[in-house]
Amino acid sequence: MGTMTVAAVIVAGGSGLRAGGERPKQYQLIGGKPVIWWTCRAFLGHPAVGHVQAVIGTGHEEMFAAATEGLEMAPPVIGGATRQDSCRIGIEAVARHKPAKVLIHDAARPFAAPDLIGDVVGWLDRFPAVVPGLPVAETLKFAPGGIVTRTVDRAAIWSAQTPQGFHYDSIVSAYRKAEAEKTQNLTDDASVAEQAGIAVAMIPGRLENRKLTTAEDIRIADQNMTASQYQSLPDVRVGQGIDIHPFWEGTAVTLCGIVIPHSHSLKGHSDADAAMHALTDAILGAIGEGDIGVHFPPSDPQWKGVASRVFLARAIALLEDRGGRLANADITILAEAPKIAPHVPAMKDYLSPLLRLGHDRIAIKATTTERLGAIGRREGIMAFATVTVRLP
Ligand code: MG
């Protein structure tokens, strides 16, 4: 590729806890996929971009690997204490590709359109640094301590977006200069370029290229994307699944992927996760694909002791091969013991990325059978699942 190579650095180092939820915002689902999946795909799929490098937070390695499954991503690098540090690390990491231009983009902006990315790359032929932005429409007030002291002239005020583009050698030296001068907490890359005296051009950004910051931003983005996906999937199907496993000696049971300490374990060929087996059968049922025993015969030793997520992932893959998507999953577990309710949040968090459903589309309920029947005599655990799927 030589000197014209364009590299993209996706900055995903933040813990993003402002958005709430079980995981950082860049790993939360919108439209069935993690925010960062959409962001990385936008750059991987762009004809002008040769290399995509993600910078992630410490301890996020597993989440990142799961979130970008199926995308051909280079291994991520671990960011620093501040955004500025993380960007510098990401920029240094793409040096081996000898890029002429580098784009630096927030992981929390999943809606960077191909023409916006193309605009930034194109304008880099004329300027060493290019920032997309939007003219500020509201009147701006300067109000220290909540009291307005003056109105700010907004005539030339823009709000900055990403991807911000730079000539590679210029931004590398600007970052090294900032580090040498111990300039800290510059909140975007253009600021680093400005400090180094590099001319930064402002070009029109896109309204839809907003940064998802709050829990509300994530919820609205998910709702909009999901609604438009479901609109194109008019064939609505319902599936049901039932499973039961007996107790035997052991110290824990596995239900919906979560290991729960108990006086017994469940007997079965795999991990005996009755709830996940019922769920898998419900999905297979909705698409008329037989049941779990057809796809994973108990007579086949390769499935012995296997985690039931393998079965569930297969059912989801069969659904997605047909262009379908789950719409909801409702699971009921019948057990006298152990207590299920305290584990429901962890179960939902485990199932959510597998099912590609937000927590609000997954229900996990438990009931005893008032000591009636086999379940009431504590001989085992039974589970029921109902799902709705949407197909083209
Ligand atoms: Mg089973």
Report on the architecture of this protein.
The protein is of the alpha/beta class and 392 residues long. It has 2 domains: 223 residues, Spore Coat Polysaccharide Biosynthesis Protein SpsA, Chain A; 159 residues, 60s Ribosomal Protein L30, Chain: A. Helices cover 31% and strands 27% of the residues. Helix 3 packs across helix 5. The two termini are 40 Å apart. The relative contact order is 0.12. The site of magnesium ion has 5 residues, from strand 13 and helix 8.
List keywords for this structure.
2 domains, 8-stranded mixed sheet, 5-stranded mixed sheet, 60s Ribosomal Protein L30, Chain: A, binds magnesium ion, alpha/beta, 392 residues, Spore Coat Polysaccharide Biosynthesis Protein SpsA, Chain A, single chain
Q: Quote the distance from N terminus to C terminus.
A: 40 Å
Per the CATH scheme, the topology name of the largest domain is: Spore Coat Polysaccharide Biosynthesis Protein SpsA, Chain A
Please report the first level of CATH classification, the CATH class of the largest domain.
Answer: Alpha Beta
Estimated radius of gyration: 25 Å
Total strand count, please?
19
Write the layout of secondary structure elements.
Elements: E1 6-12, E2 29-30, E3 33-34, H1 35-44, E4 51-56, H2 61-67, E5 77-78, H3 83-93, E6 101-106, H4 114-123, E7 129-135, E8 140-142, E9 150-152, E10 158-160, E11 164-167, H5 168-180, H6 189-195, E12 200-204, H7 215-231, E13 235-249, E14 252-255, E15 258-261, E16 264-266, H8 274-286, H9 292-295, H10 309-321, E17 325-334, H11 344-355, E18 362-367, H12 373-376, E19 380-391
Parallel strand pairs: 1-4, 1-6, 4-5, 7-12, 17-18
Antiparallel strand pairs: 2-3, 6-11, 7-10, 7-11, 8-9, 13-16, 13-19, 14-15, 17-19
Bound molecules: magnesium ion.
